[in-house]
Amino acid sequence: MSDKPSPPLAPPALVARQVMRAVDRAYLGTLMRPEAPGAGQPYTSLVLVALDHDASPILLISALADHTKNLLASPAVSLLFDGTAGLEEPLTGPRVTVQGTARQSADAQDRARFVARHPSAEMYAGFKDFTVWRVQIERGHLVAGFGRIHWIEGRELRYDASAAAALRIAEAEIVAHMNGEHADAVQLYAAKLLGRAGGDWRMTGVDPEGADLRRGGEVARLAFDRPVHDAEQARAELVRLVKRTRQG
């Protein structure tokens, strides 16, 4: 029997963000608009999602979709992020429900971050009927397995990215550099640190808490051990993680 103490549990807000950042899709809940069948009733749909540096969800959705028409009538939304994929007992796994308000975004970086996360979206991102929406988080509900259930206020669930403006500006350059000059390092992250099979993994984004990877329809999340706020800090953390893979 070991007397070694168990490691402390991560704060609920951090766990919730880890779940949210690790997936590339969510279930979107809206209220059916007054003129539609089932007016006023909940309506749930599957959407692709990206997260900004502060963990605000970003959507790219068509004006023809019912959920978009619902948002134009009432911006209140909920998003379910499901982190239970592959578990034999899904109810033992983590999931996060985010409640908030969705607003259309004209920020070019929101669109760019979504397309980087979902490369296939590039072929329709410029269509006139597709619009970027950003969700302002008001609160979250984390279920991290039996007995670990937390309501989290929006100010806690959002990551304070005010010190990371330089990283947001440099993100595209960092990602392009990693995929172009250090593609071997990206493969090492996926295989050695994340236990993912196959090659041709690519980095799609970097934020203060980690990096997003993709291989075809599969995504993976590389979490940083410490936050990074600019290109130099990101470089140092990525180099450190490569050294970790080579040290076993």
Contiguous runs where pLDDT drops below 50 for at least 5 residues: none
Query: Kindly, what is the distance between the CA atoms of the first and last residues, rounded to a whole number of angstroms?
Result: 26 Å
Number of structural units classed as domains: 2
CATH architecture of the largest domain: Roll
- Please state the average pLDDT score: 95
Largest sheet: 8 strands, antiparallel
The outline comes out as globular
Query: What Rg do the Cα atoms give?
Result: 19 Å
Short description:
This protein is α+β, with helices and mostly antiparallel strands. It has two domains: 12-160, Electron Transport, Fmn-binding Protein, Chain A (Pnp Oxidase, Chain A, Roll); 164-246, PNP-oxidase-like (Split barrel-like, Alpha-Beta Barrel). It is built from seven helices and eleven strands.
Salient structural properties:
248 residues; alpha+beta; Split barrel-like; 2 domains; eight-stranded antiparallel β-sheet; 7 helices; 31% helix
Would you kindly provide a written description of the structure presented here, covering whatever features stand out?
- The chain has 248 residues and is an alpha+beta fold.
- It folds into 2 domains: 12-160, Pnp Oxidase, Chain A; 164-246, PNP-oxidase-like (Split barrel-like, Alpha-Beta Barrel).
- 31% of the residues lie in helices and 31% in strands.
- The strands form 2 sheets. Strands 1, 2, 3, 4, 5, 6, 7 and 8 form an 8-stranded antiparallel beta sheet that branches. The protein has a 3-stranded antiparallel beta sheet with strand order 9-10-11, with helices on both faces.
- The longest helix is centred in the C-terminal third of the chain and has 17 residues, at 165-181.
- It is globular.
- The model has no long low-confidence stretch (mean pLDDT 95).
